[in-house]
């Protein structure tokens, strides 16, 4: 494991589950860490907190940097981190958003129960594996012309609804209605389009997955019902993936452009390369980021289309309703209270989920009285959680909560020290059917490589930045 | 294999792939970075040398050149279905020309690489006794 100087950082406990690194040296704001003691110990094992310190030293950053319970080392900025910027003094930084622009999660609720699903589990899983490409070099059937690709980038779900890959009801249940305003396909390079063109409707590899789960526990029956989660044993489908090569290339392209224009010597880390929010280059990146985000929303929608088709082949009366679709690598322009005043900020979430409480205009009308649905996927073979956004998150963390379990083992360590046989046995013992393009890839994603998602979800709930609604247990997994 | 003869080695990194590459010259160093990239995507399998492509990248400094070179290998993987097996590299000032040798991605089950990063990147000259060698460190986002 990386040796770190994290133990030298002075961390004060300021409240239950809230720790702080006070503003010192080059920091412009303090860092608030949301964690249990157990989680904080893990966070200190890699460079997460040094990276948070660098984030705190960026120009125009406001109030505090947030480090969430699933935080771990990224590049430049930690994953599981939130930074909010003043629109005039602040910057937009592709590395603080993540290369996988709009990597996110959606959850579909079905009208099937566990017993009937298990009767056809193998068939459904094989059908999905056939229809939803994962891994490298596996193209999807949705390879588009230039014109159509641009339409996807500019209009996201509007295109999908037009082509009948989505319903209007689907569109309402996606952040930003699956189409971020201001997207501009002309700001996305030909290189990025070439990378992403044949990848629409595909999962990709790494930690991306598709899981068919059962509702194992319901903690808040009323809110669960509003989301369409009616009873334990109900089958749900979780899809986790992002903007594929198109988004990654877009981030890379703008990092190169911003470096050329602004350099990086004045920044705490080369990977935090950025541009002033309202500069021409800043505006270009915002438009490109929005386009890549629309690509990712559309990607998850096309996978949903294939999943619905796959289910109906074996369950002709099956219905898979979209509960919600969330981003966890994105920058959003949102109003937050700073020193009692409402201020529009550019909120960067990297491996962090928006958590808005009841009343926020950004939440679809369907959920506006209860708050925003949130999904925290566990690692392969573990529980995933459904939560609801809260007003407290808006006060404490710019309306943000964790996005997943967060890694603890490096990929190389996982491959050297965990065994494929053990993983297969573990999945078998838990009665989880796994279809993976690469068992080595699956090994890197083994549960032991991740933090305890149960702890991450519990801390989120105890803090009040995301309230527990339900717990989900995997029955079948597709991995790249 | 003696430390001096190693072309590259993978290091620990929580979320991504990190490697150190070595070379007797700067060109050789970049060639071994391509070998490390190839190993990263193919795992234990060897990618055949069936296809060739000439690429050119530029960069204001060596780190930018390395970043853009890795970026190009990723692009070839996704957009042109070319998986690198090895490369022949020539660097002149702020330009790099390389012959990429590899094979069609569709024949293999490969690991995906999202992007090159500048995280923890360095390129340095190391003098060991009378021998000069070059060393680079790269983190790739997977």
Number of helices of chain A: 16
- CATH topology annotation of chain B: Archease, Possible Chaperone, Chain: A, domain 1
Which percent bin holds the helix content of chain A?
25-40%
Q: What is the CATH superfamily of chain A? A: tRNA-splicing ligase RtcB
Strand content of chain A: 25-35%
Question: Which two chains touch over the largest interface?
Answer: A-B, 48 and 42 residues
Instruction: Give the rounded overall mean pLDDT of chain A.
Output: 93
Element order, helices and strands of chain B?
EEHEHEEEEE
Q: How many structural domains does the protein architecture of chain B include?
A: 1
Descriptive report:
With 480 residues, chain A is α+β, with helices and mostly antiparallel strands. In chain A, 34% of the residues lie in helices and 26% in strands. Chain A has a single domain, classed as tRNA-splicing ligase RtcB, CATH 3.90.1860. Chain A contains 16 helices and 19 strands. In chain A, a hairpin with a 2-residue loop joins strand 12 and strand 13. Chain B is α+β, with helices and mostly antiparallel strands and 142 residues long. Chains A and B meet through strand 4, helix 8, helix 10 and helix 13 of A and helix 2 and strand 6 of B.
Short description:
The complex is a heterodimer of chains A (480) and B (142). With 480 residues, chain A is α+β, with helices and mostly antiparallel strands.
List key phrases describing it.
heterodimer; A: 480 residues; alpha+beta; tRNA-splicing ligase RtcB; seven-stranded mixed β-sheet; 16 helices; 34% helix; 26% strand; globular; B: 142 residues; Archease, Possible Chaperone, Chain: A, domain 1; five-stranded antiparallel β-sheet; three-stranded antiparallel β-sheet; 8 strands
């Amino acid at each position: 494991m990386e040796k770190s100087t994290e133990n030298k950082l002075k961390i004060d406990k300021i409240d239950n589950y809230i720790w702080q690194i006070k503003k010192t040296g080059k920091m412009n704001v303090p860092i608030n860490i949301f964690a249990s003691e157990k989680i904080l110990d893990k966070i200190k094992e890699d460079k997460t907190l040094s990276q948070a310190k660098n984030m705190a030293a960026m120009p125009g950053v406001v109030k505090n940097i947030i480090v969430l319970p699933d935080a771990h080392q990224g590049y430049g900025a930690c994953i599981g981190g939130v930074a909010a910027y003043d629109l005039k003094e602040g910057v937009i930084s592709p590395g603080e958003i993540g290369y996988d622009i709009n990597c996110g999660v959606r959850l579909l609720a079905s009208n099937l129960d566990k017993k009937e699903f298990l009767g056809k589990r193998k068939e459904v899983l094989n059908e999905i594996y056939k229809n939803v490409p994962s891994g490298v070099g596996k193209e999807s059937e949705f390879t588009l012309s230039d014109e159509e690709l641009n339409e996807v980038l500019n209009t996201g779900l509007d295109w999908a609804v037009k082509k009948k890959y989505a319903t209007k009801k689907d569109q309402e249940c996606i952040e930003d209605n699956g189409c971020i305003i201001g997207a501009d396909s002309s700001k996305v390079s030909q290189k990025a389009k070439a990378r992403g063109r044949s990848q629409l409707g595909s999962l990709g590899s790494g930690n991306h997955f598709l899981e068919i789960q059962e509702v194992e526990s319901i903690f808040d029956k009323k809110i669960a019902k509003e989301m369409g989660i009616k009873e334990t044993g109900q089958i749900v489908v979780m899809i986790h993936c992002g903007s594929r090569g198109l988004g990654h290339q877009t981030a890379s392209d703008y990092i190169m452009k911003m470096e050329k224009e602004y350099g990086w010597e004045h920044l705490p880390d080369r990977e935090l390369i950025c541009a002033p929010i309202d500069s021409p280059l800043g505006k270009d990146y915002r438009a490109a980021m929005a386009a890549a985000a629309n690509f990712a929303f559309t990607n998850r929608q096309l996978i949903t289309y294939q999943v619905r088709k796959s289910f109906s082949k074996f369950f002709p009366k099956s219905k898979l309703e979209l509960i919600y679709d969330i981003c966890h690598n994105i920058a959003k322009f949102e109003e937050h209270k700073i020193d009692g005043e409402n201020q529009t900020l550019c909120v960067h979430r990297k491996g962090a989920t928006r958590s808005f409480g009841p009343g926020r205009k950004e939440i679809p009308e369907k959920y506006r009285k209860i708050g925003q649905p949130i999904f925290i996927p566990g690692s392969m073979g573990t529980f995933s959680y459904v939560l609801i956004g809260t007003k407290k998150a808006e006060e404490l963390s710019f309306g943000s909560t964790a996005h997943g379990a967060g890694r603890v083992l490096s990929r190389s360590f996982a491959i050297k020290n965990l065994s494929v046989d053990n993983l297969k046995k573990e999945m078998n013992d838990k009665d989880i059917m796994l279809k993976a393009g690469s068992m080595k890839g699956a090994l890197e994603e083994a549960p032991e490589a991740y933090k305890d998602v149960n702890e991450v979800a519990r801390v989120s709930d105890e803090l009040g930045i995301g309230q527990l609604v339900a717990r989900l247990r995997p029955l079948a997994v597709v991995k790249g | 294999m003696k430390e001096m003869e190693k072309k590259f080695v993978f290091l620990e990194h929580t979320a991504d792939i990190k490697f150190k590459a070595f070379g007797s010259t700067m060109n050789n160093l970049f060639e071994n970075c391509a070998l490390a990239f190839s190993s990263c995507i193919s795992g234990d399998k060897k990618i055949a040398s069936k296809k060739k492509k000439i690429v050119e990248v530029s960069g204001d400094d060596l780190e930018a050149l390395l970043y853009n070179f890795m970026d190009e290998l990723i692009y070839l993987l996704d957009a042109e279905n070319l998986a690198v097996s090895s490369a022949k590299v020539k660097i002149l000032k702020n330009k790099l020309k390389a012959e990429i040798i590899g094979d069609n991605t569709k024949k293999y089950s490969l690991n995906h690489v999202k992007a090159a990063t500048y995280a923890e990147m360095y390129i340095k000259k190391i003098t060991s006794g009378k021998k000069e060698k070059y060393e680079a460190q790269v983190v790739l986002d997977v």
